[in-house]
Amino acid sequence: MDYIIKIKREKVSVFKSKWIWKLAYKDARKNFSRLFLFISSIVIGIGALVAIDSFNINLQNDINKQAKELLGADLVINSRGKKFEKDFISGLDSLNAEFAEDARFASMVFFSKTGGTRLIQVIAMEGDFPFYGEIALSEDSDIESFNSKKSVMIDESLAIQYSVEINDTIKLGKASFLISGFVTGFPGNTNISAAFAPVVYLPLKRLEETGLIQYGSRVSYNKYLKLIDGGLEEIKQALNPEVKKYGYSYETIESRRENLGQGFENLYKFFNLLSFVALILGCIGVASSVYIYVKEKKYAAAVLRCMGASGWQIFYVFFIQILTLGILGSILGVIHGILLQYILPLVVSDFIPIEVTPLISWISAFQGLLVGLIISSLFSILPLINI
To answer: Quick one: 46 and 123 in the same domain?
Structure first.
């Protein structure tokens, strides 16, 4: 008579089986160096994701906060190619507001000291502009001479490029001016724009002396308003028919905020693409490192099977290792992402006209932890199933 002996394994939950957790810990402790690629892949991918997402959140917040300083006024009315009509100006004068104006156009400048010439942008200003924020000047700049004498101020980058100093002479059109100061920051301008199109600032009352404004000149005239009693919406409704009548345009703090947000959305998409590529490479690194690790452990798994361990128990041993290291890698990735977002504003500071304040975004950190957990789980399950 033949007898068939069946061995019935006791089913124990992985959370109650202490030996699975002990074996996972002891095995991982000896093989931590082999799983370094796994951790580094998650750290790089999650770090890039958290840093870029946090930077975008901080950028949008700072745009909302600094839009007023970027515009410099509550309302800016623009006229391209022609001066404002007298009837329109008289209508503005009836408003309870402070006014400033400027004229902007491209021209050439001649440096008497070095004999160099350069294509520049001219901003001829009048009034107490900007009403919000300030124009940053070098320490030796003489603002009183700029307002009272025949002098100009130039961008500091232009002064460095042509080795000019305070009280040197430049020629703009038909007139010569003394340099009374260097501008290091102007509302709405960036370092990169100052490098490509440096600015020469002069009082609006001196503009006619240059002889640069003639028929057909491409000049942009701007009228800046600071409302004393508010009522921006009412003023906009009153201005709409007049602006359309004369072919002008206007911009408010809200519209500047929206335009900047849309403009930097492309920058965010570019950075987001970089983080997505880093995340994909991290996923590939996770799957590859787990596959190599499991391949090296197949003999150990075979020995455990011979000792009575089930396939799922062995699976849990290695899955616990991968999941734990995935959580550790996600935490390290979040920390690296938070540190990296303090460096990103320095990298892009020349391209953006605002000062980005790096703050910790807990939403981005939580998303990074969640994505890291999902990546370490999904991309490790397929190689581990071969156990």
So the answer is: no
